[in-house]
């Protein structure tokens, strides 16, 4: 079908070769559909060894992989380290038990996790969003969810967590 349609278009002189080109295409199409050897129509001078083409293709694929996913193998370790940073910030917040310090610990946990790389940033976002989601469902501690999320984003985007540090918080934290 496709070859018939092509022949109809080429019959109007769009191919540059006219009817003789279309007839040769039709013959080659029939030959291929009937499981004929495709090398019958191989142009003269075309290399028979495709090793060079395979090598070029392999290099192109490698370049694209390296460019787009240069450090994909580090992501899981970064994510685990980011989760650890988030846990440490939560633990410190509970241990400090300091009034108005939760925004600081939100920002600090996200900041430390995001410094590890894309995996840490992802872990910080998932943990922060998950925590706020659970608090929203249980309606426990959800009064300042928007401010918590703002502190989370501030830390994840590389902002200094000390912006939220309350006065008098021990230097240990």
Automatic annotation (TrEMBL):
Q: Which keywords, in A-to-Z order, does the entry hold?
A: Acute phase, HDL, Membrane, Transmembrane, Transmembrane helix
Tell me the segments the record calls region Disordered: 13-40, 138-173
Superkingdom assignment: Eukaryota
Q: What is this protein called?
A: Serum amyloid A protein
Where does the chain cross the membrane? 51-68
A GO biological process of this protein is:
acute-phase response
Instruction: State the PANTHER family in the record.
Output: SERUM AMYLOID A (PTHR23424), SERUM AMYLOID A PROTEIN (PTHR23424:SF29)
Similarity annotation: Belongs to the SAA family.
Entry annotated with the keyword Ribosomal protein? no
GO CC, one annotated term? high-density lipoprotein particle
Keyword presence, Membrane: yes
Under the heading Pfam families, the entry gives: SAA
What this protein is reported to do is described as: Major acute phase reactant. Apolipoprotein of the HDL complex.
């Amino acid at each position: 079908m496709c070859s018939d349609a092509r022949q109809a278009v080429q019959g109007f002189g769009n191919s540059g070769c006219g009817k003789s080109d279309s007839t040769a295409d039709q013959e080659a199409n029939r030959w291929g559909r009937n499981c004929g050897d495709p090398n019958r129509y191989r142009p003269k001078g075309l290399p028979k060894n495709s090793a060079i083409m395979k090598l070029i293709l392999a290099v192109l694929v490698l370049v694209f992989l390296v460019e787009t996913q240069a450090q994909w193998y580090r992501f899981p370790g970064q994510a685990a380290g980011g989760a650890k940073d988030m846990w440490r910030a939560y633990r410190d917040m509970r241990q400090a038990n300091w009034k108005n310090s939760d925004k600081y610990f939100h920002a600090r946990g996200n900041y430390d996790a995001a410094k590890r790389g894309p995996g840490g940033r992802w872990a910080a976002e998932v943990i922060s969003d998950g925590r706020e989601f659970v608090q929203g469902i249980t309606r426990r501690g959800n009064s300042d969810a928007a401010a918590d999320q703002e502190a989370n984003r501030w830390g994840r985007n590389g902002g200094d967590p000390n912006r939220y540090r309350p006065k008098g918080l021990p230097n240990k934290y």
